[in-house]
Each structure stands twice: as C-alpha cells, then as structure tokens.
Amino acid sequence: MKKILVLSFFLTVLFGEVLRAQTTDSNDTDSATFVNPLKVQFGDPYVLHTQGMYYMYGTGGGADHGFAAYSSKDLVNWKQEGQVFFSNNKNGWSDIKAKWEGAYWAPEVYEVKGKFYLFYSAQWKKNPNKEEENFRIGVAVADKPIGPFIDLNTRPVFDPGYPTIDANVFFDTNGKCYLYYSRVAYKHAVESEVATWARKKGLYKEIEESWVYGVELKPDFSGVIGKPKLMLRPPVSMGDKQSEWESRSVIAQEVNRRWTEGSVTFKKDGIYYMMYSANHFGGQYYAIGYATAATPLGPYKKAANNPVLQKNTDKGGAVSGTGHNSVTYSPDGKEMFCVYHGRTAATGDERVVFIDRMTVKAGIITIAGPTTTAQKFPSGVTKISINK
Questions:
Q1: pLDDT of 2
Q2: If you ran DSSP here, which 8-state letter would residue 274 be given?
Q3: pLDDT tens string 124-161
Q4: Which helix (H) or strand (E) segment is 2 a member of?
Q5: CA 299 – CA 294 distance, rounded (Å)
Q6: Which of 11, 95, 135, 351 has the fewest C-beta atoms lying within 10 Å of its C-beta?
Q7: Yes or no: is domain 54-307 CATH 3.10.180.10?
Q8: What residue spans define the domains of the chain?
C-alpha cells in the first residue's frame, strides 16, 4: 500500500511538472522577443514562404557573381544556405567583367507548380554601344528554393531598349501574372521643377530619373505580352506633396538623380498596392512609399501618408537608408511584415535586414518601424523554432 501511495505521489508531481513545463513553454513563446537589425547582411531582401520554411534572397551576402540564400522557421533566426545562383551556369547571359562585377542585384524567388523561379537583374553581355549601365532582367529556375538555379534562357526576359533593374512579379487571382521593374536613371534626364531649381542653384545641369513600369508576363516567363506601361515616376511639380520626400537626395546634394525603384505589388480586399523606394539607395534618405490602384496596371495613385518608412536619426534613432522592401506573413498568417534593408551607426555602410510589422486596411499602409528595440516574435512561432 505504501508503495502505491509513493508511486501515486510521484506520478502526480511528475504530471504537474509536465503541465507547468507546457505552460512555461507557451508563455515563453508568447513573450519571446527579437531585436533589429537581423544577423543578415543583404541589400534588397526578398522573402519566400513555402512548406513551413522561409527563404531570404538579396543583393550581396557574400555571393560571388550570383546570389546567396538564408533559411528560417521563424523569420528571426536565419541559417546560411550558401550560394544558390551562379552567373556561369550553362545558360548564363550576364557579363561579370562589366561595372559592379556584373551587377547581380535584387533577386526574388517565386514558387510555381512545384518549381522555383528566380528573377534578378544583371549586366547583359550584349552591349554593342558599350553602355556603362546595361542592366536587364533575367529568370532562372530550380527544383528547390536553395537551388541550384539555372537561367531559363540564354538571354534576358525581354529588351525594352533601356536598362532595367528590380524585377517584381505579381500573380493575380485570374491567373494572369505581371512583371514590374525600374527603368534606371542612366541617361534618362527628365525636365521638372526640381531640375529647374537645381540648375538655378548651380547644383546640377540635369536630373536623371528612374521610373517603374509594368507589363503582363507570359505564363512560361519566356517574354512579355504587349508593351510596358508607366506605373510610377517622381513628381514634376515641387508643389506636389510627394515631391519633398522623393527629392531629398537632390536637395541635400547627394546626387543628381531621383529614384523610383524596388517596387513590390500585392492585392488586398480588392485593392492593388504598389510599394516603392525613392532617393539614393546609398544615402540616408532612402525611404518607402506606396500607391494604390483598381487594376494591376494602374493607374496608381500615391498615398497621402507617404513615406511610410524612413530614417529615424533625426528623431534620436540609429537607422537610416531604409528601403527596397518585400512583404511576408507570420507563420500563422495573422501578421504582415515589411522586410527591408537599412543602415545603423554600428553597421556603417553595410546594408542589413530589418523586419517590422505592417498593417493594411481600407487602402492605407502603416509600418511600425524602423525599430531597434525588443519586438515580439512573429505570431505562430513555436518554442521549438525559437530554441533552434
């Protein structure tokens, strides 16, 4: 009888400990925090979520004439997966001897029918006029999100006759897909009130601009359908409410260019949203705005609350150069995150990755960032993934 009582007492204590352990695990998960920036040195970060895993791709990250990747279960802790795309693959069309060592920039990966497609920009080896900026957009394919990715064709997706970067692909609910990209500022001088002001001030003879275009993409990604349409450009008038923040790099004399680049398009509650970055990507004023439309190819109207993400150094913070974002969701799909690069006093010129919560409601985007203080882990993250 005594043995039975002892055993019963032991089981009760053990069961109680298990219950307490489970409760503690749950509480620990709910209270777990992370701090920006993440331990990922990427520019132009893009996140793919598939089969319970996140994969991040970006510019740099130690890749040699190509692109590297990271993987994560929780959006916070990232594992290096090494280089996943090499320019010298059997169908490679780029030129590693061109300026910026071939300019392998802004990769984005999409899963379609069990395959993974990597869109990116690089210097095209077909360059009869020896242009310094001869960027075009290519697409490579792989069986796994960590590659190896092989160019789909021995040429870019298409040639609009001017240099292009920052590919973004949007898949609409009707089955059609669209390619958005930025026509770079190279040799694209545009007359505007800002350009006139800069000349009168003796700052610059001309102001070059990059513009975002959109075009329908063939289902097999072998080319485009129809002609590209202009989606977004910097304001012409200095009286335009968007002009002040989109012209800061010119006004501050950082450079004689105004950028509209790094676009990312998504649809929510029947509204098409196009986020974009403006100002010099290498400067402190790089910032994010957005526009909305009723159709994927516009017309797009810029939001009154732009910019929705910008430097905070003028308010006592440590972050500047915030831009070129992508959008992803927490593991349970309940929270939306803006994934972007920025710089801090500690990281210097090195671009590092931040993730901050964002909300989208009734045509308005709000981003709770940039942050460098403790934030709750994304919702739906398990204790197991936090510990790993």
A1: 37
A2: E
A3: 999 999 999 999 999 999 999 999 999 999 999 999 99
A4: helix 2-31
A5: 8
A6: 11
A7: no
A8: 54-307
